Amino acid sequence: MLTAIGIQVEANAQPGAVYFPANTRGDYSLPMSGWGTLTGEANYTLSSLVHTNTPATKLGAFNVRGYSNPTMDKLIEAAAVEMDAGKRKQFLKEANALVATDRPNLTIASIVSASGMTKAITIVPRPTKIRWP
Fold first, then answer.
1. What is the b/e burial string over 91-110, where b = at least 16 CB atoms within 10 angstroms of the residue's CB?
2. Which residues contact 69 (CB under 8 A, 6 or more apart)?
3. In sequence order, what are the beta bridge partners of 59?
4. pLDDT tens-digit profile of 34-82?
5. Domain boundaries, the chain
6. Phi then psi for 63, rounded to 5 degrees?
7. Number of H helices, E strands in the chain
8. Cα–Cα distances in Å, from 40 out to 4, 12, 45, 62, 68?
9. How far apart are CA 65 and CA 117, in angstroms?
10. Which of 84, 93, 114, 125 has its Cβ near the most Cβ atoms within 10 Å?
11. Quick one: pLDDT at residue 40?
């Protein structure tokens, strides 16, 4: 994909024990890795990738680009403690809207997979749409 726009790259696969500490230090200009969520909702991802890196609270631990937006931080923190599902969802929608506006990370590939273990489970796909202004 990058070659198509005139950028020459060379892949350099590394074991996780080497890659992740180096990526956390910000050693790579264009890292490629995957991300999953334990909870299945946006706060887990947002609090790790786009919250200001704050070691005392362990928020933003994988925000290796140094992105910082106080409004984003407030939305993520509010969602983390909000018990009302509708309010929590609204906080996360607003935070995701900031991601779309500020673009702290540029996702060039998104691979989604789903699996089930019984016929009683039905998975209804919700494809992600990338919107460019």
1. bbebbbebbeeeebbeeeee
2. 50, 52, 98, 102, 104
3. 54
4. 777 777 789 999 999 999 999 999 999 888 888 999 999 999 999 999 9
5. 1-33, 34-108
6. -85, 75
7. 4, 0
8. 34, 30, 9, 18, 24
9. 38
10. 93
11. 77
